[in-house]
Amino acid sequence: MTYSKLPYHRLENKADLDVLLEDIGDARIVMLGEASHGTSEYYSWRTAISKRLIEEKGFTFIAVEGDWPDCYQINKFIRGYCKPGTKVSDVLKHFNRWPTWMWGNWEVAALVEWLKENNDRPNTNKIGFYGLDVYSLWDSLNQIMKYLEKKDGHAVKAAKEAFKCFEPYSSDPQEYARAVAYVSEDCEDEVISMLQELGKREQGEPANPEAVFDAEQNALVAVNAERYYKAMVRGGGNSWNVRDGHMMETLNRLLEFHGPDSKAIIWEHNTHVGDARFTDMARAGMVNIGQLAREQYGRENVYLAGFGSYEGSVIAGDSWGAPMKKMEVPPARKGSWEDWLHNLGATDKLLLSRELREISEVKQQIDHRAIGVVYDPNREKYGNYVPTIIPERYDAFLYLDETEALRPFIVKTKEKEPPEMYPANE
């Protein structure tokens, strides 16, 4: 392949992000991707961008591809709701669902410490931190019951009915999904009833609006997780759409909760952030949060930034639930987007889509690497790449020529995990 010259900006330090901040402009939603869930530089660069968005553009909260109950523990910590003496390591130990390293790592710890320091300063905007994902069915149900322990009325009754419905499945979402996949008798009515009851707020402003929001969000997770697990067992792309639809619904709720001037930073894998309409996902009828946000808020209000690298190392597992380990990431496939950028010079680069759109080669689909929590470097010739029209899928792309594996905490994994059908390529 003959590589055309591409316009790009150097990416060596935080000052080099000036051009990105200018390009973001007045966007209300900024989504920051990653090409793997186990690369240190993706986390550190997203942290650097997020800090500047908060300090210079008044962004309100960060929402990530993580479970709501666990991420809400971070939110409580950085807002000063935890008991005195709580450390960041105590908080990140809540991330005990495989893959534990996604949020239980030192790179995230550094971000959390900075967010707490920011929030502790007087006369600063208090930043929130939340999880967008749908997997925490049982944890969310438990959090609802804890919230309702000192309350009574219809909401408590609805929550107990939902628990009663799920009890035969021993807290195993996979067992539940398989049992009800092809029959109409399931727990959907119970969890929807619970959500409706929790949504009926008491007269006047509650003493802690965020605690009420937390309970309502856990109920929403229960509703959509129930739908997700059923759709997953039935097969096809619908479970993906249920999941990203839930993420978009959660983002909308967070923006509404934080008011009309709120601004969101999203951390997710490229497969969620990059507009699905400009990949082969579209042919399979799949959508993602990047696409949905552009459709709902307009492209001028949503900024999508992808990430990628040429070679290095990564944290991943050989199979679902397998022990995490550091793996070598081989040089990118010949003819891929990452190979192209490497051949322009082995330097880190920032590319803006508005500067790429007149180049004919990037108007066509090109292979773009995506490493999941399950990874086999030997399959680089056969998989791990998503055909992509780069300047339409993203508004900007941050290319890091050589990257290192992130530094995880060692966290004991829960026994009950989401089923093996969890998408391994994101």
TrEMBL record:
It comes from the Bacteria. InterPro entries: Emycin_Estase (IPR007815), Hydrolase/PRTase-associated (IPR052036), UCP036794_erythomycin (IPR014622). Gene3D superfamilies: EreA-like (biosynthetic domain), EreA-like, domain 2. This is Erythromycin esterase family protein. It comes from Rufibacter sediminis. The lineage of its organism: Bacteria, Pseudomonadati, Bacteroidota, Cytophagia, Cytophagales.
